[in-house]
Amino acid sequence: MALSKRPYCYTGGEVVITLSLTDPETGEMNIPNSVFVRVLRAEVDGTFTEVVPRSEVAVGDSPQLVYRFSSTDTAGDYVAIFELNFTDFQTENREIHFSVVEPPLYSPTVKTLIDGLRLFLRDNKPYLFRVDEPIEHWDDEELYAFLYFALLDFNGSPPFWTSFTFETLPPEAYNIVVMGGAVMALIARSVLEAGNHFTYNDNGLSVTLARSQGYMSPAQMLLTQYAQGKKSLKRYIGLSTPWKGIKHVRAPLSIRRPLSMIPALENVFGR
Questions:
Q1: Residue pair 233/202 in contact by the 8 Å Cβ criterion
Q2: Do residues 95 and 16 both lie within one domain?
Q3: pTM over 0.70
Q4: Helix and strand totals (H; E) in the chain
Q5: Number of folded domains in the chain?
Q6: Are residues 136 and 251 in the same domain?
Q7: Splitting the chain (271 residues) into consecutive groups of 10 residues, what average pLDDT does each group show?
Q8: Bond preceding residue 103 cis, omega within 30 of 0
Q9: Strands 198-202 and 91-101
Q10: Is the dihedral of CA 126, 129, 133, 136 positive or negative?
Q11: Among 101, 129, 151, where does a domain finish?
């Protein structure tokens, strides 16, 4: 099966390359006697420069071979060539392509939110995936977009408008924005899986690939918690709280007093 997304890492980071040792036809593990790997970098002229000379990789009894490549400071496209040697003197070569990219210039606050969202989605340990390819489902740019949409939703939600940015967002609101980002991510994944819905029937044997609802169900559950938490937090902030990001001029007492009598607004305006 082809990789759905090429593995990547940032310059100076580490990319984890996973090679399946399971026969796709029989489902049996085919453990090689020894494995050697070379890593090459693609040049502009179409040639390749060897970055890691042929070296042996330890082989265990796992159905997956994990190779960790500590990247250089040179961004570009790379290929890892695995030479699998079996006891019957057969040799099989496999190639895994990956990329080394320049890291985006995210602030420490944004990076904390991105890492928190990735952890929340359990996308921080792709080698634990048992059905999908062991690579991250979402890259940092996608997670940033989901967090940004959640921040916009938080700012525009009642009982009043706010204008928080990631830098002015109070730490008390981090979990709400991360939860909102998770809702956005799961809905986006559900839409993708709906487009990939597949059904095959052959002489009574039916095979169906339908995973959209599997992502939509937790999204709906989180959406309820997110909406309740968002409403409670914005009530807690209140119009009278001098937090940065609130767009308002303090209302006169003659206006605030009657509004505070309304049960839905008592925690906002105070009695």
A1: no
A2: yes
A3: no
A4: 6, 9
A5: 2
A6: yes
A7: 58 83 79 91 89 88 81 86 88 89 84 92 75 72 93 88 89 93 91 73 69 80 91 75 50 57 51 45
A8: no
A9: unpaired
A10: negative
A11: 101
